Amino acid sequence: MLYLIYLLILLILVAIGLIVTNIFLKSKKNQEHSGNKQLGSKFLAGDTEQLSIIFSSIEEGLILIDNNKSIVLLNSAAALITGWGVEDAIGIDISTVVKVADNQGKPYINNNYPFNKVFSTGKYFKDNDLVLITRDNKLISIGLNISPLSDKDGNVTGAVALIRNMTEEKNQESRLADFISTASHEMRTPVAAIEGYLSLALNNKVATIDNKARDYLEKAEEATRHLGQLFQDLLTSAKAEDGRLVSHPEVVEMGDMLKKLTEDLKFSAEKHGLKTEFIVGTNPANKSDSHLGVKTINPLYYVYVDPDRLREVITNLYDNAVKYTPEGKITIGITGDSQVVQFYVKDTGSGIPAEDIPHLFQKFYRVDNSATRTVGGTGLGLYICKKIIELYNGRVWVESKEGKGSTFYINIPRLSTPRAKELLNNPEILPTNTNTIATT
After folding, report:
1. Spatial separation of the C-alpha atoms in residues 380 and 386, rounded to whole Å
2. pLDDT of res. 116
3. What is the CATH number of domain 2-165?
4. Of 101, 93, 156, whose CA–CA distance to 124 is shortest?
5. pLDDT by residue (tens digit) across 43-80?
6. Do the Cβ atoms of 270 and 323 come closer than 8 Å?
7. CATH class held by domain 250-436
8. What is the 3-state secondary structure (H, E, C) of 15-77?
9. How far is the C-alpha of 428 from the C-alpha of 430, rounded, in Å?
10. CA 352 – CA 23 distance, rounded (Å)
């Protein structure tokens, strides 16, 4: 359903863009004859009326701005969302009328302001997780789509924006998350009890059963374990969505942590005949530096994270690599620069189709091919990984080619060694918000 909505929005923006561009061109020709060089207020009367009718007939908020980022047209829906009157907003700078912030309430200004991004890059902008600060300082959840208008030379001469009030959708998502959280929590107890009784039934010291019954009980235990993991993942994803995911960040030296974690994880790979290696300082996409001695010189890669949460992410990526790698090896590596620590999990498996990569971190999304149908999973693991990494202002992504394996990368802001030691020696100055940690 959401894809249809986004497609409709895009079609509306394209249609309006074509109309507005045509109007701009007519206006420009008219200006050449009259010597008037100002845009916006000098539209042809008939064209302005035509565009106003189109704007007014659309239920979503629509705003047209000129090359000075001043509002030329604003429909009644946009006026209702922003709290500005239609006539009051005409000629006003867009940043005064459309004040936006991230979902934490931090305003976007200067180069981060969406309209400034569109004018500087000339690229289409879309974000459905923004907060609008209205004229009377109320906060409204919105979706914002901005399409640049360009002349024949590619210069941005204006933009048309579509604003959607997402308040009801966000409320529905919140109610759904609450339901999932409550249901998952309540179901974990009976599922754990069933799993416990099955374990007792399979214990030779407790019960005597024949081989056929044991086979049935083992399958039931495996299915129950999968169900328990599903409920756990549902609960975790619900908490991640509404900001209730527990995190206790601290200063962590990632090189040492990953080395120990690799030692613990390699046994699961060995059961499947796979090798595991740990590499420090080598980017898997660039093998040319492997001869440099970086494997024996271990830099200190300090970050500010919850080690348990990060261990959860690495373990999930590693387990996925084992599942989808029939032969070869799994590589866990770490590298970085002065600003970022980058670690990765690389496999020699079947790879991921290019069309699936953009959706891989979406909730419940699973690649559907012959290599994945026999592998169990909830479709929530990568979504949870992404949410956890975002807690620490990080980024996770994948690079893959079918038949050549996949590499999952994670970037997290790096702490300089002096800053890390300062925080370790003075734990009372540790902030609870990772946004306030200085990386230099």
Report:
1. 10
2. 94
3. 3.30.450.20
4. 156
5. 434 455 666 666 666 778 999 999 999 999 899 899 99
6. no
7. alpha beta
8. HHHHHHHHHHHHHHHHHHHHCCCCCCCCCCHHHHHHHHHHHHHCCCEEEEECCCCEEEEECHH
9. 6
10. 45
